[in-house]
Amino acid sequence: MGHPMISKSAIADLPAPAPRSGDSATLAADIIERLTYSIGKDAKVAKPHDWMTATILVIRDRVIDRWMASTRKTYEDGSKRVYYLSLEFLIGRLTRDAVSNLEMLDEVREALQSLGVDFDAVAALEPDAALGNGGLGRLAACFMESMATVDIPAYGYGIRYVHGLFKQQMSDGWQVELPETWLSHGNPWEFPRRESAYEIGFGGSVDTIGNGSDETQRCIWKPQERMIAVAYDTPVVGWRAKRVNTLRLWTAQPIDPILLDAFNAGDHIGALRESNKAEALARVLYPADQTPAGQELRLRQEYFFSSASLQDILRRHLQQYGDLRTLPDKVAIQLNDTHPAVSVAELMRLLIDVHRMEFDPAWDITRKTFSYTNHTLLPEALESWPVPLFERLLPRHMQLVYAINAKVLRQARKERGYDEGQIRSVSLIDEGGERRVRMGNLAFIGSHSINGVSALHTDLMKQTVFSDLHGLYPDRINNKTNGITPRRWLMQCNPELFKLIREAIGDDFMDDAEALSALGKFADDTEFRTRFAAVKRENKIKLSNLVARRMGIRVDPSALFDIQIKRIHEYKRQLLNIIEAVALYDQIRSHPELDWTPRVKFFAGKAAPSYHNAKLIIKLANDIARVINNDPSVRGLLKIAFIPNYNVSLAEIMVPAADLSEQISTAGMEASGTGNMKFALNGALTIGTLDGANVEIKECVGDDNIIIFGLTAAEVAERRATGHDPRGIIESSPELSQALTAIASGVFSPDDRNRYGDLIAGLYDHDWFMVAADFDAYAQAQRQVDSLWVDEEAWYRRTILNTARVGWFSSDRTIRQYAKEIWKAGP
């Protein structure tokens, strides 16, 4: 007997629950109620993690009221929805973010205080969501918060990683990768949505039915392997809770969790192979792809979340509007980098094979719906997949890629007169060596808009990786300089600075970050500078305490805090910073009579598990730190600390404590950067190259309030094209030569004197990242920093002007530009 239908008319007559009150007394009572009835604990025996969960559930109730109201509003007014597809969402801890954006921070703090519980201690217990790695994922998180803030209906789509990238520990200075366990005790912020489940296929064959005369010929994909994508939703609260949007993350489940016949026959491992295959999809972010199995898993992940997301988008659109021809009018899909680029082929498959459209109208809808954000000029970072792998895993999509390619190449040859070289450049198939499917080209060709993330990056994109595609589609590339949310990266991570600014200029900047410009006049106010410096010192003490507690390293908060935090990569040039530290170490010992500026160099960041040189750079930083930190002749004037397991929560402590922000990538290689914006907003001076968004930061803060050094992107390109002599450069620089000799000869690695030989030899042989080429300019810029630091009044004048002048780099501004110029969505 079936279940009786639920009467929708009866539901419609039910009264809506009253919105939850936000006063502290009600909050306190609700926390006790949740502690008792949701967690099953008496307050007298509750542990800190119980209080954390109860508090989150009470806050979540207040979020749900606004979440449902936002969803109803979008459905009723027919607003265009934005869907942001990203393999990473580095959202960090959500409790303080939600409470702050609900404007209930004081009330929640008072409620917990009345129960004898400290809010800050409870919020610190929440694990960082291990859903991303670096800037790409944090940008997606900032964008989600800003879309809710500026009232754009949006969904973020990604994967619910069980272990994320990895937890980084140090063993004798080497990076060790351990699994993150952020979900081991559940996630009170998320809601499982078992009704939002979609079948995902892999492999198999493609059959053709119909003879083209009595019915339209159609392709039927018969996957060999199938699994189910199941949704988990997390609410994303905008500032002042104007809107609450949804982050929908997918996990994989097998269709048959256990092969019972095999299990009963004694094959206990084989019986679980379908479960293991499904679970592997959502285990780890960026599985190492140096093996064929790793490549296959990564492609599976990308198709899995892209297909589930698109099926969900089409289901929602058909449910509300009933006609997929209106898709571009009501839906905008943003591809965050090339990871979801297979979505172009998947939407074509769904429109043609499932919804029976012809190729040309399906292609028109696809291009009008998608837009693509490029994040890199590195050709190797623009994903491509071996044709045999792609064809074996996604046979129908391979057919569609060839069909799209044929259409594009005919257009390039006939309409634009492209020659063979240009045809090879724009093709979706790379024919040089092993044939590969180019995902960057697929994302470009399948989108109506392709944006860079800084002015320089966008110009270089037109000239380099996409020059021929730009020639074919000259109206598609545009710039949307990245931004950061000032709620998390000022209000929440630096509450004392936030209060000081609010006292000085009022509340306007809380809704419009560019109103921070009013702070500029306080740069010459002696009392304000003193208070600004006092806030900075308290933030430095907090970081000093963390380093002492975690690493046993004692640092002086009066020293200049020089910080470089980002992914460990040769183009980001942590190596340049480390070599300069060695040169400075030599100078301090050689000239003890000089007045050296006390300095602490902080590093943090993860190296990809298979990236040998990046992991070697981490080991080098730790080896050098061990020597310098324990050398009494340095007299504590220079210390180095590499803090393990960099994540959002660590950044929230390090960013407010920085005096100097290291943004020293090889010019032309950093697309934008957002760490540069966070540091400047929190009152740090930037030392950097003219790369990424540094160019625009320089324009905003003024030449006197940033320290720029080194080759420009054009000069780097010229040297690479014409050749340069790194050996001659090194030999003509005594400081550089001496530092490199010390590193290469094993001064810092007495247990293995050859450890860094090859790393340093690479600088002599080719110096692709221009470390040697920029060293003298960098060292000179650092001595300029020393001289600026001596004049405390002038230093804090500059840092205040940085905070005052970088409001333009709010992600609210960026999102409004996307909404107006690309998505055609929002108010």
TrEMBL record:
Cofactors named for this entry: pyridoxal 5'-phosphate
Substrates-to-products reaction catalysed: [(1->4)-alpha-D-glucosyl](n) + phosphate = [(1->4)-alpha-D-glucosyl](n-1) + alpha-D-glucose 1-phosphate
Tree of life domain: Bacteria
Entry-linked PANTHER family: GLYCOGEN PHOSPHORYLASE, GLYCOGEN PHOSPHORYLASE, LIVER FORM
Keyword Glycosyltransferase recorded: yes
InterPro entries: Glycg_phsphrylas (IPR011833), Glyco_trans_35 (IPR000811), Pyridoxal_P_attach_site (IPR035090)
Encoding gene (name): glgP
E.C. number: 2.4.1.1
Keywords, in A-Z order: Carbohydrate metabolism, Glycosyltransferase, Pyridoxal phosphate, Transferase
Family that this chain belongs to: Belongs to the glycogen phosphorylase family.
Protein species of origin: Hoeflea alexandrii
Described purpose of this protein according to its UniProt entry: Phosphorylase is an important allosteric enzyme in carbohydrate metabolism. Enzymes from different sources differ in their regulatory mechanisms and in their natural substrates. However, all known phosphorylases share catalytic and structural properties.
Protein name per the record: Alpha-1,4 glucan phosphorylase
Pfam families recorded: Phosphorylase
GO molecular function: 1,4-alpha-oligoglucan phosphorylase activity
